Amino acid sequence: MAEPEYDFDLFTIGIGSGGTRASRVAAAHGARVAAAEEHRVGGTCVIRGCVPKKMLVYGAQFAEDLEDCQEFGWTIEGKSFDWVKLRDHVMKDVDRIESIYTDTLDKHDVTLFHERAEITGDHEITLASGKVVTAKYILIATGAWPHVPEFEGSDHCITSNEAFHLDAIPRRVLIAGGGYIANEFAGIFNEFGSKVVIANRSDVILRSYDFSLRDRLMQISMTKGIEFCFHAEFEYVRKNDDGSFAVKMTNHDEREFDCVMVATGRVPNTKGLGLDNVGVELGKKGEIKVDTFSKSSVDYIYAVGDVTDRVQLTPVAIREGQAFADSMFGGVEPYCVDHSCIPSAVFSHPPIASVGLNEREAKDQYGKVAVYQSDFRPMKNVVAGRNERSLIKMICDDANGRILGIHMIGPDSPEIMQAAAVAVKAGMNKADFDATTAIHPTVAEELVLLR
Ligand SMILES: Cc1cc2nc3c(=O)[nH]c(=O)nc-3n(C[C@H](O)[C@H](O)[C@H](O)COP(=O)(O)OP(=O)(O)OC[C@H]3O[C@@H](n4cnc5c(N)ncnc54)[C@H](O)[C@@H]3O)c2cc1C
Ligand SMILES: NC(=O)c1ccc[n+]([C@@H]2O[C@H](COP(=O)([O-])OP(=O)(O)OC[C@H]3O[C@@H](n4cnc5c(N)ncnc54)[C@H](O)[C@@H]3O)[C@@H](O)[C@H]2O)c1
């Protein structure tokens, strides 16, 4: 029987990190590719995530640097901070990156529909304009969306989506959640002069990170003036006549804030996609269930990135998109992404970075482990009179010295960890680090001097 004719070989829904990579690579392999994006090309990472967030983190760091520089002999007179200038500058750069993404897709002859798409039948996609197209394969790369718990006045709250567009830096901010976004934005607002309160429903922040790093971040954050409220869940947020908000959380007295931000996780974006029209199976959080090759329960429908709720990080979405495109259209033996030992960072002030197992996980899995630690004040902090200590922790299998995890908090830790992650992923031992000569004087040299 002749194969049915489709308009495209691949239709990608969602042009964020995963969708862009998959579409571009599939087209480069010779596939006829179309894609739909309902908002802006680049998705969360480029438009309202990693990229603008990191730019704000850089902007915020100047608050400390301008203070510290005085101990290095500098006098800065009349310093002031202009939020609107930074915000608009960041957004201009976001526009620039969006246009680079669009050009790349264009150059690869990906047909891009700037509108919402929905699956309306077997191999059939209907666009918001009513146009219907067919495709041999469909890739869902629709990402995730902020989860806002239900409570009185939840509509008064912002999420990270809106945080990039504020008219002014709020004087008092409450951030609900104790994860990546809460801690990163707490640092940003605090450096810009806001009074920041983090409210979390448990008493643990950044649950997946090593406890020593979590404790250190909390201690440093509190020294900087960030307040933590634990066992706190929203009862209500009420708007006052002067535009501020009265916020009541469980176990805490009512307090006033000028901005309430919710950062309580992100849920997979699967609503209204028409997945039930074709029988795509979803998990408990609404995520698309996929096998190791990112194939859904429907043979011709695949999914990559946050929508599958495996690991919500940009480089992971990109790798999944690449593996999908190579495997389906690249004429290679199909391969899947290795989700083990993924390095990660929290761009707090100071940042945290980590690869491999934390001490708890290592003990649970390996029983006896050796822990090497360096707790030190970086030279720059000493000269600046900044009483802020860094921490590096290496966890090894006691039986053979293989490194199971490295964890670090302190200036530049994400930059340092990227290189260290290669060694951990490659299964190296502490002895390999010890055999490497230090680069002195650096913070990173602590990694090869651990005792
Ligand atoms: C504030 C913030 C900071 C972050 N910082 C980092 C970081 O520092 N490092 C890191 O690795 N990760 C970070 N992340 C996570 C990272 O952004 C995501 O993991 C990544 O963007 C996921 O990519 P994706 O392709 O799965 O989805 P997305 O990039 O979210 O793309 C999905 C796209 O699909 C579109 N879409 C959805 N439904 C439809 C539809 N029906 N039709 C058409 N289009 C549709 C959306 O508009 C969106 O553009 C951050 C996230 C946030 C929110
Ligand atoms: N640097 C980075 O790589 C980076 C930065 C930002 C976001 N991200 C990705 O985006 C994802 C989403 O970030 P996030 O910070 O929203 O989620 P998260 O999963 O990191 O943290 C969510 C936090 O909210 C708390 N929480 C959940 N429900 C709650 C409720 N009803 N009331 C109060 N607290 C509640 C949880 O206990 C947890 O501490 C992250 O998991 C991460 O994968 C990565």
UniProtKB/TrEMBL annotation:
It is an enzyme of class 1 (oxidoreductase). Residues 342-448 form the Pyridine nucleotide-disulphide oxidoreductase dimerisation domain. Residues 9-321 form the FAD/NAD(P)-binding domain. GO terms for molecular function: glutathione-disulfide reductase (NADPH) activity. Pfam families: Pyr_redox_2, Pyr_redox_dim. NCBIfam families: PRK06116.1. This is Glutathione-disulfide reductase. The gene is gorA.
